[in-house]
Amino acid sequence: MRFTQASTKYGIPKGTLYDNILGKSKRMMILEEAGLDPAEETAVLEFCCDISVSPYNRRTKKSLNAILNFVEQLRQKRDPAFVFTGLSGFRWWWAFCKKHSIVSLYFNDENENGADSS
């Protein structure tokens, strides 16, 4: 469920949801903590979005779980111990979406076994 949908459904302002889930300060700092270089960020964009078709207001074609696994594998090439813990993956994804104008997340309610559903 998107923040907008949750806000409407539960009558909670979007800003309050953002603040409570993502933390009130320095939301974009998580990008630095993940430490992707520009080539890795491009690889993530190519993995999750059709950047050649929609360079702005991108939509994902992968689930959040698949994207976070992809990022972890990228980072583990340089730092084998790297993993997202707790909400850090979600926080990273939120900041990454803001930075790269990604407007929606693909949602698959079935378990993803590495197979593409399309």
Question: What do these coordinates show?
Answer:
The protein is mainly α. The chain has one domain (3-104). 51% of the residues lie in helices and 4% in strands. The protein contains six helices and two strands, in the order ααααβααβ. The chain has helices spanning 3-10, 14-22, 29-34, 38-48, 64-76, 88-100, and strands at residues 58-59, 102-104. The protein has a two-stranded parallel ribbon. α4 (38-48) runs antiparallel to α5. It starts with a helix and ends in a 14-residue tail after the last strand.
Count of extended strands? 2
Helix/strand class: mainly alpha
Unreliable residue stretches:
111-118
Helix/strand order: HHHHEHHE
Average pLDDT: 78
Shape: globular
Distance between the termini: 21 Å
Helix content: 40-55%
The gyration radius over C-alpha positions equals 15 Å
Oligomer: single chain
Strand order of the largest sheet: 1-2
Please give the largest β-sheet.
Answer: 2 strands, parallel
Number of helices: 6
Number of separate structural domains: 1
How much strand? under 5%
